[in-house]
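Course assignment 3, question 2. Fill in each field.
Student: A.L.
Task: Predict the tertiary structure for the chain below.
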Amino acid sequence: MLHFLVVCIGLVLGMYFSIRSNSSQHAAGLNGEPTEAMHHGVIEVGSDCTVPFIRGIELQKDNNWGWNIYLDIEGFTFSPQKVDAEHVAGEGHVHLTVNGKKTARVYSNWYHLGIDAPELTSVEVSINANNHAVMSRNGVPIVKRVFLNRNKGLRPTEQCQ
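Answer field:
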C-alpha cells in the first residue's frame, strides 16, 4: 500500500511540474522574456479577410544614422488618439520589438529606428488594439518578424494568412 501511495504522489508531482514547465516555455518569447500577449492579453478579431494583415516590413538604411522602417499593413487604421481606450475593430497601434526587446509603440506606417547597422539583428511588429491587446486571427497573433542576415539581407518569418 505504501508503495502504491508513493507512486501516486510521484505521478501527481511529475504531472504538475511537467505542466508548469511546458506552460512557461510556451509563454516565453525570445531570450526567455514574457511574450507581448502575456502583458496585454490577446483579442480575437475574426477569421475572414477583413482582419488586419501585415504584408511586409521594409528596412531602409538611413543616410545619416539608423534605419527607416516601413510597415505595409492592410485592413488597419492607426489611432494614436485612442490609445488606452476600448477596442474598436480595425484600429490601434503597433508594438515594435527590436533584437527581442520591446522598443516602441508605432502610430503610423513609418518609424525611424536610431540604432547602428551592426547592432540590428531582428525586427518584430505586432498589431495591437487600442487597449494594447495583441490582435489575433484564428487564435494566432498577428505578428511579423524579420531577421537581418548580413550575407543575405532580410529574411521574414511566416505569418498567419
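Instructor remarks: The chain has two domains: 1-34, 36-156. Residues 10-38, 157-161 have pLDDT under 50 and may be disordered.
Grade: pending
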